[in-house]
Write a structure and sequence with these properties.
This protein is α/β, with parallel strands linked by helices. The chain has helices at 2-11, 24-35, 54-61, 97-106, 118-122, 153-163, 165-168, and strands at residues 42-48, 74-76, 85-89, 92-93, 112-116, 132-134, 144-146. Helices cover 36% and strands 17% of the residues.
Length: 169
């Protein structure tokens, strides 16, 4: 416990900083070609592969009256078989590695894979843990990354609206 406390004092506050990474534009351009196939609506399936649940709370906030994901045509599926995109949160743990691959295989093509949060992108604070097998991109191909710890719901909607912006033109 003292080792963790010492590390926290030494590093200071590391969450809540939202720098704009340079690879987001490239990811949006690549994922935009797949998004054209989903004309008006997008059905998401959230897969938690071992996160701290902060990203899940932000994804749940999307359904609140403040963000109202339904008005943008974003729906949540109960099964990956009915989803257009997988939103993966957290680093992939040993126990969830096979479940992630099964969910990916069950999602019909064409499909998008969105790595949501720093932990899904590069394992975040869980990097180096014995229970983590790596980021999402090591296990399934990722089309879009949304950085943050956790990313804000408004950022998620902004990136998805940019993704679908060519459809309106």
């Amino acid at each position: 416990m003292f080792r963790i406390l010492k590390k926290s004092v030494k590093e200071g506050i590391v969450t809540g900083q939202y720098p704009e990474p340079p690879h987001v534009d490239r990811d949006i351009a690549e994922a935009r070609t797949k998004a054209r196939l989903f004309k008006r609506s997008l059905t998401l399936r959230e897969v938690d592969t071992g996160s701290c649940n902060a990203c899940e709370m932000e994804l749940n906030a999307l359904a609140s009256p403040i963000y109202d994901q339904e008005r943008f045509g974003i729906h949540v599926a109960a099964s990956p078989r009915h989803a257009d995109a997988l939103v993966v949160t957290g680093p992939v743990t040993v126990n969830m590695e096979e479940a992630l691959k099964d969910a990916y295989d069950s999602t019909p093509a064409p499909k998008l894979v969105i790595a949501f949060g720093d932990c899904a992108i590069d394992c975040g604070v869980f990097k180096g843990s014995y229970a983590v097998t790596g980021p999402v991109a090591r296990h399934v191909p990722v089309d879009l990354t949304i950085p943050g710890c956790p990313p804000r719901p408004s950022e998620f909607l902004k990136i998805l609206s940019e993704l679908r912006s060519d459809e309106k033109r």
